[in-house]
Amino acid sequence: MFAGFQKEQRQVNGVNISYRIGGSGPALLLLHGHPQTHVIWHKVAAQLAGVFTVVAADLRGYGDSDRPPADAGHAGYSKREMALDAVELMKSLGFAQFRVLAHDRGARVAHRLVLDHPHAVQQMVLLDIAPTLSMYAQTNEAFARAYWHWFFLIRPAPLPEGLIEADPELYLRSVMGSRSAGLKPFTDEAFGEYLRCLQRPGSARGICEDYRASAGIDLEHDRADILAGNHLTLPLLVLWGEEGTVGRCFDPLEEWRKVALNVRGKALPCGHYIAEEVPDVLLEAVLGFSLHRLSAVAWPTNTPPRRCSLEGREWQTLCQRLRKVTGEDRDALGDMLPMLIHRKNISLRRLVIGQYRLQATTFQMLLDIPARPQNQSMAVQRQTQRHLAVIARQRPADLVRVILAILPEAPDRIVAAELAQNNAVMPRQIRHVRQCRHRFKVTRRRAENAWILQQANADQP
Questions:
Q1: Among 104, 128, 329, 331, the one annotated catalytic
Q2: CA nearest 339: which of 2, 47, 127, 101?
Q3: Per-residue pLDDT reduced to its tens digit, 351-389
Q4: Count of beta carbons in the 10 Å neighbourhood of residue 438
Q5: How far is CA 387 from the centre of its chain?
Q6: List 111, 149, 221, 272, catalytic entry
Q7: Cα atoms found within 13 Å of the Cα of residue 330, Cβ hemisphere only
């Protein structure tokens, strides 16, 4: 695990924080959840390191980081202190600003981090949580049964600590194995690391104090932010498992919209442990969220990053093109580059390094389309239709294939597929598909089949 990464420790904010670091590029901080460690990222770390300088840290109380003593108000394990650990760690590594990908408890730390240090974080992805205050306020029987450990761990010491320390492996298997996927997502090596760290002296105390803080001082901090009108303003992506408790008991996206101004999100086909259950799906979502913007970092060197799908000559050609790009085109290409690195897609390569010269307006239309909700109003549908029509007119078949490659949730994905296959991409035909769909009031696929049959019939338009 973590080939090419270095494992180190640094003293920040009065505690020793353990972390692994690897890769190159803009900084990406990874924060884990309970009852795990930074090892949860072992299936995605190498790919992320091809684009970012990845810092995977152990929270205080977890992994190989320090376990500070408990205090009466649990302030030592508040998310405010844990967030300060993270900020100081990244500063000590030379990163005044960075991106964050965080799961479970780490995502709660990340939430507090952005509220307390808004200028430190550029973009953030949170996995399988809703805001802590919302979850406590809306607790019902179903949630209490599924997240029993929330209420067990906050009991006064030493009861929960003593029960965990009596059989750490039983506790680990009971918590992690009771989720929708059981223990299947966890490799033997990863599970062994989780068990080793849980068996370290003070681990049970650290875990319990983390949860006690969340049920006490953390809620006070959250209420104070709400009263002050503080919101998250950075670009935020929230992802949750469609088979998990958070998605069943809450509306995660709606809850995050109450505290964040620039948020999008969706459910993924998995349970709670997203990074270990569906690592490829997570990578697609994270890179698609454009965590890496070239406008904010230096241009790439002539050496392809690790795990890059481009050959050396292709990468050099790309770099030559990028160095000549300015303004809006530069930002748009910055959004595209992570996918270009991660995905082996010939159409996407041709888009960037091929024979076509791309205009900023075309890029912007491509970037705008996936933000449209699927249950669109007629006005938004017409706007999306116009976007596709202009794209089709400017860059015929290949640009539509790019839509298929990089915008899998675009409303006109299947329509565009049929148009590309017939190699006749014209605005009139796109409008005709819309009319066909409206007239017969059938499903999207049946509408496309109707259009194909009409095309095959010479006496029909």
A1: 104
A2: 47
A3: 444 333 344 344 444 444 433 334 445 555 555 555 545
A4: 12
A5: 27
A6: 272
A7: 14
